[in-house]
Design the sequence.
């Protein structure tokens, strides 16, 4: 088993932090081989940003994500930048407020709308949309159960323990809507 995951959006959304939490959960809690890399435009907040995780049950020879098996798109810029790299069968979670046009995804890509930002707002802190996304990703992929991702979030982001716990639970509880059921 080898899975390539990209969490993408814009700077300031906590995407790199989310990828670090995910990598630690998969490596420490699940004992998989894991590599985490990141990209961000360091000169401005709001520029392109992404955190990548490669997870496998054997040694990882090539550490870079080229064609993700899973993509979380937290902004329209992420859809526009990464949709062409998705192949049929790729699982995609798209924030339904921060992105509106999913036309760039090819047929056969499993695109799911998710109220990531709205769920974070309901938890009480928009900044935790990245943690909501980790819960949704865990449930969609089955790589981590709720307890495993919750422990990883609390170990890595202890500052707002109650809020983060609610955020990961909210994400895990989301019923993801297939994109075919909603006009772009």
Sequence:
């Amino acid at each position: 088993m080898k899975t390539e995951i990209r969490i993408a959006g814009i700077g300031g959304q906590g995407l790199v932090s989310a990828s670090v939490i995910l990598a630690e959960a998969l490596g420490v809690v699940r004992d998989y081989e894991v590599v985490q890399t990141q990209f961000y435009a360091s000169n401005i907040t709001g520029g392109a940003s992404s955190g990548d995780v490669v997870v496998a049950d054997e040694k990882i020879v090539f550490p870079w994500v080229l064609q993700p098996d899973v993509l979380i798109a937290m902004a329209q810029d992420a859809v526009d930048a990464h949709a062409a790299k998705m192949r049929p069968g790729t699982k995609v979670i798209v924030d339904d407020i921060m992105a509106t046009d999913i036309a760039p995804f090819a047929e056969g890509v499993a695109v799911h709308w998710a109220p990531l930002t709205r769920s974070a707002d309901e938890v009480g802190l928009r900044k935790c949309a990245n943690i909501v996304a980790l819960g949704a990703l865990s449930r969609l992929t089955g790589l981590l159960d709720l307890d495993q991702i919750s422990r990883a979030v609390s170990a890595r982001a202890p500052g707002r323990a109650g809020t983060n716990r609610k955020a990961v639970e909210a994400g895990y509880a989301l019923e993801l809507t297939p994109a075919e059921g909603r006009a772009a």
Observations:
- The chain has one domain: 2-174.
